[in-house]
Structures are given as structure tokens and as C-alpha cells.
Amino acid sequence: MTGHKSIHVNQHGFTLVQAIFVLVVLGMLGTYMVTLLGVQQSTSTLAVQQARAYQAARAGIEWAAARIADGKALNNASFVVAGTGCTVTVNVDKVDYSEVGSPGTIYHIASVAVSTGLGKSSPDYVSRTLEVTLQ
Question: What's the pTM?
Fold first, then answer.
């Protein structure tokens, strides 16, 4: 056994570098997944708030239209629609006209629903405006 020599190569540090690389990659992947989950959840929440604001603005339009149909006095109003977390402001413009001896009235109704959160600077701020013209 005189012709056979054993060569030892020092590779102990190379395995450590691979392990650190794998840990860093897995940590970055985990961070990305957590961030993606948070964005998805906030997007869903914002979509629900937008739908609530739209329905609150629609409730303001329907409230004004019902008052017009019932012949009740109609003033601008502001109220909170229960269950939506929105304050609704309804503005009504009334124009009387006469066409070929036939009198009429045109109503322009604008309903603005705003989330009652922290204000416009909040990331949860939602506002919806609906306008209708009735004759």
C-alpha cells in the first residue's frame, strides 16, 4: 500500500454557506407570502366597504325619491345609514318649468356616502356619489 495516498480537502465551510443561502431564500419567500396575504385581505375588506358606501348612497337617492313621490317637503339632509358605517348627504335641486302651458318640476338629486372612518387620509376611506334627475 505504498502507492496510494489519501487527499483530504477542507470543505466544511461550503456546507454552511449553502445552509445560510437556503435559510435566506426561505425567509424571503415567507415574507412575500405574508405580505401577499395582507394585501389580499385588505383588498377584500375595501371591496366590502365600497359596496356598503354604494348602497348607502343609493338609500339616500331612494329616500329623496320616496319623499318626492309622496309630495312631502324636501330639504337637503344628512344621516347615517345603519349597518354601513357611512354618513349620507342628500342634496336636492328643484326646477319648476312650464312647457306648452303644462307646468312641471325637475328634481336633481345627489347622494354622497362617506365612510365614517378616520377621514380622507385613512387608507380605509371610501366615498361614493350617485346622481339622479327625476321629472
Answer: 0.67
